[in-house]
Design brief:
By secondary structure, the protein is of the alpha/beta class. It folds into two domains: 169 residues, Peroxisomal Thiolase, Chain A, domain 1, CATH 3.40.47; 123 residues, Peroxisomal Thiolase, Chain A, domain 1 (3-Layer(aba) Sandwich). Helices cover 32% and strands 25% of the residues. The protein is built from nine helices and eleven strands. The chain has a nine-stranded mixed sheet with strand order 5-4-6-7-1-8-11-10-9, sandwiched between helices. The longest helix is centred in the first third of the chain and has 16 residues. The radius of gyration is 18 Å and the shape is globular.
């Protein structure tokens, strides 16, 4: 009996409706002075960021509804993995959030799962959870949706990225061909490095992707592009190349166009690479999110 194959369907994203210029941020020069950074937009990749006037849940629904519509009629979606760096409200309010989310998607009986705590790698953690649920035979089609919107505008600009409000979603199935084949996922962890303000690790990135390569026989050079987090351009370029990827494999355009959409960047970048014709059938894309002390990685093939 052949091994089951997993596929991604309906990869979509939604961004905050207000497009704002980084150059117009209040106290930009004060921020630069405090962090000893030069005012050079081209160097950092500053351009625009997106801000929503609604809520994180609303923008998450906007993306998820697109994914569900694209998948309509293929197979019943029987599980949903909601991913967020933060979930609004208290524990009692979570029931309302989940209930409204499922009802709005017309998935009243889908099993809800939630994942957090992995910061900007939360969506990639959700992908790994979906993979496990499907390979265990517990579900047939899993919707994964991540959403984030900042409540405090003062935290939008950090020393490593400019944050946008947004969401991304997709559906993972077993033995049902889709837009991308999910070849494998991996994670590399260093608990001692999970500290506020700590750097991301190129060594963990190398370890996670080498883990996938060892199981799948795929060399780093076989990958067409890396769909990574949209941190400032020099951070991405240095860390990903230290991990073994070449400059030609990186996709930096979205750093300037939209900035860092928290955990959603890998799927946003995958969607945009496909939309602009940068991928052909059979091309491999490495998905990856790094935070201090962790790298969550994946490998997909365009169908």
């Amino acid at each position: 009996m052949s091994a089951s194959k997993l596929h991604l369907h309906g990869c979509r994203y939604a961004l905050g409706e207000d497009v704002c210029a980084v150059a117009d941020l209040p106290d930009l020069q004060g921020f630069l002075d405090r962090h000893q950074m030069i005012h050079d937009a081209a160097l950092w990749g500053w351009g625009s960021y997106c801000r929503t006037r609604s809520s994180a849940v609303d923008i998450g629904l906007a993306a998820a509804q697109q994914s569900v519509a694209a998948f309509a009629g293929r197979r019943p979606i029987d599980a949903v993995v909601l991913c967020g760096t933060r979930f609004p409200g208290d524990v009692d309010g979570h029931a309302d959030i989940v209930g409204r989310f499922l009802e709005a998607l017309d998935l009243p009986a889908a099993a809800p799962y939630g994942t957090s705590l992995n910061r900007c790698a939360t969506l990639m953690a959700g992908l790994r959870i979906a993979q496990a649920l499907l390979l265990a035979g517990l579900h047939e089609a899993v919707l994964v949706a991540a959403f984030d919107a900042l409540a405090d505008e003062d935290t939008r600009l950090r020393h490593f990225a400019i944050f946008s409000d947004g969401a991304a979603s997709f559906i993972v199935t077993r033995d049902l061909p889709g837009d991308f084949e999910l070849i494998d996922t991996a994670v590399a962890i260093d608990a001692a490095a999970m500290r506020p303000g700590a750097e991301i690790s190129a060594a963990l990135t190398r370890q996670a992707h080498a883990d996938i390569a060892s199981r799948c026989g795929v060399a780093v050079g076989d990958v067409k592009h890396v769909a990574h987090n949209n941190l400032f351009r020099p951070i991405v370029a240095i860390k990903e190349q230290q991990a073994g990827f070449a400059a030609r494999q990186l996709f930096l355009d979205n750093v300037t166009r939209i900035g860092h959409v928290s955990a959603c960047d890998p799927i946003i970048n995958l969607v945009d690479l496909a939309a602009r014709g940068a991928l052909s059938s059979g091309d491999l894309v490495a998905l990856g999110s790094s935070v201090s002390g962790a790298r969550f990685a994946g490998l997909v093939r365009m169908m």
